[in-house]
Amino acid sequence: MQAKSLKPYAEPLDEIAQEAVARMKSIRNENNMIENNLLDEFMSYVLEFTGIIALGRRFYAFDPNLREGSLTPILLRNVQDFFALSDKLDFQPNLWRYYPNKTFRTAMKFLEEAEKLNVKLLRTAMEELKKNPKPEEKKGVLEKLAEINEDVALAFADDMFFVGVDTLANGMISVLYLLANNPDKQTKLREELMSKESRRPYLRACIKEAARMRPVAFGNLRLTTTEYNIFGYEIPKDTMVLFCHEHMSLREDQYPQPNQFIPERWLVDKNHPLYHGNAHPAAAVHFGYGARGCVGRKAADMEMEILISRVIENFRLEWRGKPMAVYQSVSNHNMAPYNFIFNDV
């Protein structure tokens, strides 16, 4: 996905981010904390982003007047069920590989129903686009993909909903958590945002540093298609190889002071001891790379930057209590309680 294809979404995504901030202000308690499940909250924000990019429509996921029977809670539940079932099938002892037990049958039924819903949403979106065609320069991702192949457009929408919503919501919470625990970095970021400069290098550096320290994807798994000899290690064909970025990106020999949140490492020149380019190129490639890289990376970066910007512009974040734990499954999940304090700036 090219960055220029995302330009038409900048304004509607920013409108959603501002609505999300207003929602956060309205649901704070007397201590400026949000008692709702913060991950669910952020998933609803990301669902709105995803609806705009993948389908060209809003779901109004955090509308207090949401009608009963709306698609929104169904879509959010589908995402949650997808990860819960994946955890049971892939990370817990299970016999489904030998015979289709109840867990496997439940998963297949769920995926079938979820796929039907996604197809229905995509078909509706495509019909709307045909009725109201846009000029070439205003066409978004969905239109351009569908013109090439509708099956590809559906696969893209599936990935955005099933994989993108949960992971991006967790990634956003990680960035805010590290900023809340590093008030000097938070202040520096806010100063950059308030300057209204179009370039925001420190914002991007904060996001990269959070991905290094608390990656959503702990690694990338690949199947070798030929034999390899890497530094004397013989790797046969058809071997599963795990690139464990979570471990590599926290090694002292790759990133000095690895447990410190230092966004500046992504901005200093190559003569500085913290320069990120001194690390191995594969030490922190959490989106993958090459032909198998994450197709939604540009969209995820854009969504992250827009929402984080609006949150930091409006709130001075603090963290109260114990460090936020992480549960490792198909991806890394930030665990409740989410003890953020959202003070007005």
Topology:
Elements: H1 10-26, H2 38-55, H3 71-91, H4 102-131, H5 141-148, H6 150-180, H7 183-194, H8 201-213, E1 220-223, E2 228-230, E3 233-235, E4 240-243, H9 245-248, H10 297-314, E5 315-319, E6 326-328, E7 332-334, E8 340-344
Antiparallel strand pairs: 1-4, 2-3, 5-8, 6-7
Helix pairs in contact: 1-2, 1-10, 2-6, 3-4, 3-6, 4-6, 5-6, 6-8, 6-10
Structure description:
By secondary structure, this protein is mainly α. The protein has two domains: 3-214 and 295-344, Cytochrome P450 (Cytochrome p450, Orthogonal Bundle); 218-285, no CATH class. The chain has ten helices and eight strands. The chain has helices spanning 10-26, 38-55, 71-91, 102-131, 141-148, 150-180, 183-194, 201-213, 245-248, 297-314, and strands at 220-223, 228-230, 233-235, 240-243, 315-319, 326-328, 332-334, 340-344. The strands form four sheets. The protein has a two-stranded antiparallel sheet with strand order 1-4. A two-stranded antiparallel ribbon has the order 2-3. It has a two-stranded antiparallel ribbon with strand order 5-8. α6 (150-180) runs parallel beside α10 (297-314). The chain is globular, with a radius of gyration of 21 Å.
Features:
345 residues, mainly alpha, Cytochrome p450, 2 domains, two-stranded antiparallel sheet, two-stranded antiparallel ribbon, heme
